[in-house]
Amino acid sequence: MKPRLVPRRSAGRVALLAALLLAVFGGLALSARGGVEQLVDYLALQRTPSFTVPAGWPQPVYDFRNNPITDAGFALGRQLFYDPKLSRDGTIACASCHQQFAAFAHYDHPVSHGIRNQNGKRNAPGLFNLAWQPQLMWDGSAHHLEMQPLGPLVNPVEMDQNLPDLLTRLRADAEYPARFAAAFGTPDIDSQRLLRALAQFTGTLVSANSRYDRYRAGDTDALSVTEQTGLASFRAHCASCHTEPLLSDFSYRSNGLDAEPKDPGRSTISGRDEDRGRFRVPSLRNLGLTPPYMHDGRFDTLEQVVEHYRSGVVDSAALDPALRGGIQIDDGERDALLAFLRTLDDPAFVHDIRYADPGARR
Fold this sequence. Notes:
Elements: H1 11-24, H2 35-46, H3 71-81, H4 94-97, H5 150-154, H6 163-172, H7 176-184, H8 191-202, H9 211-216, H10 225-237, E1 252-253, H11 267-270, E2 279-280, H12 302-312, H13 331-341, H14 347-350
Antiparallel strand pairs: 1-2
């Protein structure tokens, strides 16, 4: 149940309160019965997340000193993230493939879906803790958080947008010039401001409140005995690539999916044949919320993922040496590992209204 600002009152008094609140908070759709609850959501949406480095984490790669987070800048970035106007035909927003309830991944979709019902070629990864990533995308094609949106924006099977046309569209919009003026001082709309506003939103998507995090912080009751056994197994078999606390070392590796990779992966960017079939090691945070798995979404369940590492690793020239022969764990250790992996979910993150669609009725 959502918190209430005032005790229950008669319908007439609540209606009067709602009307007064509507006058103060212009544009908020308040109803007599639900006005207080909507006000709670409205006020929550106005709180801008502050970017802080969780205890024990390294310093981020992205430097917010060059793009300070402001209330207006964050709100503009959030609006842009959820606005389908960013796609050529006005049907696809960033949020279409990055859904908050799925830790900003595309739930139950093996690959991203773009305009005209076209399919991309890779799974849409969850968006969180991006400020710590030295490179972004499965192949590392984006070297900077502010540049990352350009990939899906101009991809012909995703948003299929032309940047000059997009800027013209935003300049002609009834609201965006004023929003850009509030965020950056003048109503000028250019590519740098567009990308910096998006970075103010996506850069604050910090997920660090799972049961695993609470256990690391000293709450020994946060994990069951079985889950602690799974953590020990994880550290013995997985942590060399999925390095704590971000649960990735952000390197590019082959995990033995195919002897002859269909997707060239990192080699498209590096130009090196030895990188064919290598992809960025993903963070395992929010793993239970982001199926399906792998760069092509081939596995539907975590059980399938773990079984791949136990018995399905395929040899290839690019295969990571640590995976030759697979990971040798028995059924009991497998079950404990699976139990631990589910402690990496962060429910507070996926329910944080500050990251929600500002236009959605909740």
